[in-house]
What we know:
Mean pLDDT: 87
Strand content: over 45%
Largest sheet: 8 strands, antiparallel, barrel
Number of strands: 8
Order of helices and strands: HEEEEEEEE
Shape: globular
Number of domains: 1
Strand order of the largest sheet: 1-2-3-4-5-6-7-8
Structural class: alpha+beta
Radius of gyration: 19 Å
Amino acid sequence: xxSIAINKVNKLVMAAIMTVAAALVITAQENSPRVPEIPAxxxxxxxxxxxxxxxxxxxxxxxxYWWNGSTWGFVGPMATLYADESLNGKVGxxxxxxxWKTNSGSLVIxxxxxxxxxxxxxxxxxxxxxxxxxxxxxxxxxxxIQRVNTQGGKAPSTxxxxxxxxxxxxxxxxxxxxxxxx
Length: 182
């Protein structure tokens, strides 16, 4: 009798997990077809004609800087990627390279960033070419990555207090991943 009750609970738990997983995938897909609005003066951030949005993720993290005794040098980002702008459903991470990796193991590395700074108080918006893709999954056919709608993340405007000082500056951004259109 007890094992029947445990089996029912296990089935309910599995059903709940599957429902949440399906909702996360649907949320990511619902967010994916929209190309972000690019402000005037930043038209160089458009992906090639014929590209379509594969997926978009919302990032919350830090930009890491190191004081070399005279200037702040960029070390790299560390961010968590979410399925929607309400920060529901952690889907992966973003770190130096620049690299994006999903929880399912799909990985993409960008190169040759094109920059535009619509908000002088925040890190630039970017368009990157894809340098490397690893694993099957959402990044498999990705050719471009945009970083848009950035908030924060700029290097400190004041000098460091000692050589080798490291700071983490909070930032948010939207990352949009493109693939060739059909």
